[in-house]
């Protein structure tokens, strides 16, 4: 049975790119979300094996806040941040919020897949 990934990113292009990369490498797409609010709802509903999360998205809940809420609802969720906001502050805040890893956009496919494999095994 393939592992399911939820992709949370406001960019349709990024979601499609991640979806193609994951499917090509044997993962199933549990779903997609375009903002933090939708990401929280879908994480609870779809129960993915791993979630990729952008930091900066429209709406009232940032990626960092979504990480905190998702992990409050289900501490066993595994979240890998994939964001262009790769400065030290956001990296630190994402890890403190409970993210397992942080991959900076534009992402290197090998680096992202390495992070996914590490936490989805």
Keywords:
121 residues; alpha/beta; 5-stranded parallel beta sheet; 5 helices; 5 strands
Write a structural description:
The chain is α/β, with parallel strands linked by helices and 121 residues long. It has a single domain (4-120), classed as Rossmann fold. Helices cover 47% and strands 20% of the residues. It has 5 helices and 5 strands; from the N terminus they run βαβαβαβαβα. The chain has helices at residues 12-24, 36-46, 63-73, 88-97, 109-120; strands at 4-8, 28-33, 50-53, 79-83, 101-104. It has a 5-stranded parallel sheet, sandwiched between helices. It is globular.
Number of strands: 5
Strand content of the residues, in percent? 15-25%
User: How many separate helices?
Assistant: 5
Distance between the termini: 12 Å
Q: Could you describe the largest sheet, including whether it forms a barrel?
A: 5 strands, parallel
* CA gyration radius, whole angstroms: 13 Å
CATH architecture descriptor text: 3-Layer(aba) Sandwich
CATH class: Alpha Beta
Give the tally of structural domains. Answer: 1
CATH topology: Rossmann fold
What's the mean pLDDT score?
94
The fourth-level CATH homologous superfamily is Response regulator
- Gross geometry: globular
Helix share, percent: 40-55%
User: How do the strands line up in the largest sheet?
Assistant: 2-1-3-4-5
- Helix- and strand-based class? alpha/beta
Low-confidence stretches: none
Order of helices and strands: EHEHEHEHEH
